[in-house]
Amino acid sequence: MATLHTRSAARLMIAPSVLLLLAWMIVPLAMTIYFSFLRYNLLMPGMEEFAGFTNYKYFLTDPAFFQAIFNTLAIVLGVLFITVVGGIALALLLDQPMFGQGIVRILVIAPFLIMPTVAALVWKNMFMNPVNGLFAWIAKLFGLQPFDFLANAPLMSVILIVAWQWLPFATLILLTALQSLDEEQKEAAQMDGAGAWSRFIYLVLPHLSRAITVVILIQTIFLLSVFAEILVTTNGGPGTQSTNLTFLVYAQALLQFDVGGASAGGIIAVILANIVAFFLMRMIGKTLEA
Amino acid sequence: MGSITLSKVSKVFGAHAVIPSIDLDINNGEFVVFVGPSGCGKSTLLRLIAGLEDVSDGDIVIDGKNATELPPAQRGLSMVFQSYALYPHMSVRSNIAFPLKMAGEDKAVIDKKVSDAARVLNLTDYLDRKPRQLSGGQRQRVAIGRAIVRQPKAFLFDEPLSNLDAALRVNMRLEISQLHQDLKTTMIYVTHDQVEAMTMADKIVVLNRGRIEQVGSPLDLYHKPDNLFVAGFIGSPRMNIVSGPAAAAYQAHTMGIRPEHLALSKDSGTWQGTVGVAEHLGSDTFLHVNVDGGVGTVTARVSGDFAVTHGDRVFLTPDPQRVHRFDEKGLAVR
To answer: Which fold has domain B241-333?
Structure first.
C-alpha cells in the first residue's frame, strides 16, 4: 500500500464487500426503525398507520421492561462471574500434569459443543426437575424437600445453565493463556520467595488479564442475547421473572403479535447494547494496549 | 558466608542419569564457572544447587547447613536466568523490589535497597519503565538487580549473556566481573563459551556428560589439561590434537600443541605443509596448514605480518616445552 495508486486500487477492490456488508446491516436496521414508528399488529393486517413514538412510550413504561433490563444484566454479570472464576480454577487444575489429561480436557470442552436448546432441556428434565431430577434425588437422599429450581429461582437456574455452557469456552482460552506463561518466570518467582498464592496473584493473574478481557468481551456479546435457554426452560416466567430483553422482544412480536412494539424494543436493545459496548471497549482498550 | 559443598550429588531422569555423581567444593567468595558443551548437565547442576530440581541422591551443603531438602527460597541464593525472566507487567522498580516484598520487608527499607541497587547498576533513570521498553543489556541489569537486593549467599547465573549481541556480551562480562570484585559474594556461572569461562572465573569446572573432567584455575586448565577433552575444550582456537607416528616422536599416544606454540618458518622445521585457509585478524593470523605425513590439518597462530597465502609451503615446529602428551585413554602424561 505504498503509493497513492495502489491505495486507491485497494479501495476499489474492497468496495463491493463493504457495500454488501453495509446493505446487509442497514436494510434490516432501517426496516426495524420504520416498523417501530408504525401501529403494526399481525392480527390486524393492512391497518398499519404511523404512530409516532407511541410504541416506544408503551415499551419503556411496560413494567416488564425494567424487569427485563435487570434480568439481562443479571444474566450477563452472573454468567461472566461464574465462567471467569470457574474458568481460571479449571484452567489451573487442567494445567497440572495428571493421568488421562487428554480425556479430561475433552470432557471439559464437551458442554460447549452441545446446542443450547438440548443443554437447557437436559438441565430442565434431568437435573432440576423436582420429581425426576438428579438434584431432587440428592435432596431426598438427605431427607430434604426437593427444590423446584425453575419455579422458585428461575433467573438463577437460567444463569446456571448458561454458565455451564460457557464455562468450557472460558476454560479453554484461559488454559492456553496459562500455558504460554514462561516457565523461567515461575522459577524466578520461586527463587524470589513467592509462595503458590503470591505467584498466582503477582504472576499468573496479570499474565491472564488479556485472556480474561477477551473472554469478557466475547461472552458479553453472546450473553446479551440469551434466548433458547429461556424459551425451553421457563418461557420467561413465572410472570416475567426470567424474561430478558431478547425474550421480551420475542414475546411482544410473536406472543402479542405487536410488531411495532417489538421493533421499538429491538431498537432500544440496540441502543443499550451500544452503551454496553462503549464502556466495554474503553475498559478493554486499556488492557489490550498495556 | 557462601560456601557450597556438593557430595555425591546425582540426578536421574527416568532411566537416564544426567549427572551420575558429583563432588565439588565451592569456597566463599569464589567466582566458579561451569563450562561444557550443550547437554553436559551444567544447567541441571545449577538448578540442583538452586533447588529448582530435586537431587536424586547425595547432599548439597550451603554454609555448613544441609540444604538438600530446602525449597529454593530458603537456600539464600539468587539466580539470573538466560531469558532474564523479568515480570513483564511490573515496572523495573517493582521487579527489583519483588523479592524484598515477598520477604515482607519494610516499605522504606525496600525503597532504599532498590534505589541503591539501581545506582550500582545504572538503572536509576529507568525505574519506572516496563521491561519491554528496555534494551537487552538493561534487562540483564534489572535481572542482576533483582538478584542482588536480597543480599544472597551466592549468585547463580544460567548462561546470562547468550541472548546479547557480541559487543554487549563483552561489556556485560566486564560488568559482572566488576560486580564480583565489589560484592565479594560467591558466584556460580554457567556457560558453554570457554572465552567467558577463561576471562571471568577464579575456578573453572569443566563438565562433560554429567561428569567433572577437571577443576582448576583458568591458567591451570590452559597449561595443564588433565585429559584430551579439557585440552580440546579450553583455548581458542582449539588445541591441535595429533596421533600416530608424529605423536610417537614425542613419546605419546596422542600429542596436543596449541596454535600459539607452533613456530613457523619458510625455510625449515619439524613438520612441512601447505597453507589452506589464512584468517587475518590484523594482530594475528590463523593459518590452517595441511601438514604432510599423516599429521593432518593443523592450526597455527602467527603474527599479523607473516606474509603467506593459500598454497604456500611452510614449516612448523612445535615448542617441545609446550607439547601436551596423552596416553591411550586420553589422560595426560606428565
So the answer is: OB fold (Dihydrolipoamide Acetyltransferase, E2P) (2.40.50)
Structural domains for chain A? 56-289 (1.10.3720.10)
Q: Coil, strand, or helix at residue A213?
A: helix
Using CB atoms, pick whichever of B50, B52, B103 lies closest to residue A193.
B103
Domain parsing of chain B, residue ranges: 4-231, 241-333
A201 vs B contacts (CB less than 8 Å): none
DSSP B72-108: GGGGTEEEE-TT----TTS-HHHHHHHHHHHTT--HH
Q: Provide the grid cell at B297.
A: 590439518
Which of B79, B82, B103 lies at the smallest CB-CB distance from A191? Answer: B79
ipTM: 0.81
- Which residue from A minimizes the CA distance to B94? A202
Could you give the residue ranges of the DSSP H alpha helices within chain B?
42-50, 92-102, 107-120, 136-148, 166-183, 194-200, 218-223, 228-233, 245-248
DSSP A144: P
User: What value, to the nearest 5°, has the Cα angle with vertex B214 and ends B212 and B220?
Assistant: 160
**B31 C-beta neighbours (distance < 10 Å), count:** 22
Instruction: Residue B37: name the closest of B221, B207, B217 by CA.
Output: B207
CB A234 within 8 A of CB A150: yes
CATH 3.40.50.300 applies to domain B4-231: yes
A182-223 per-position pLDDT tens digit: 888 988 998 888 888 989 999 999 999 889 988 998 898 899
Contact A178/B at CB under 8 A = no
How many whole angstroms separate alpha carbon A283 and alpha carbon B118?
A: 34
Task: Look at B52 and A188 and tell me if their CB atoms are within 8 Å.
Answer: no
Query: pLDDT tens digit string along B105-146?
Result: 889 999 999 998 888 888 889 999 999 998 888 898 899 999
Chain B positions contacting chain A at CB under 8 Å are 50, 52, 71-73, 77-79, 81-83, 85-90, 98-99, 102-103, 146, 150
Query: Of the candidates B78, B82, B86, which has its C-beta nearest A191's C-beta?
Result: B78
**Do A290 and B89 count as a contact with CB atoms less than 8 A apart?**
yes
Residue A288 pLDDT grade (very low, low, confident, very high; cuts 50, 70, 90): low
Q: What pTM value is reported for the model?
A: 0.80
Which residue among B77, B85, B103 places its CB closest to the CB of A188? B85
Computed over every residue of chain B, the mean pLDDT equals 89
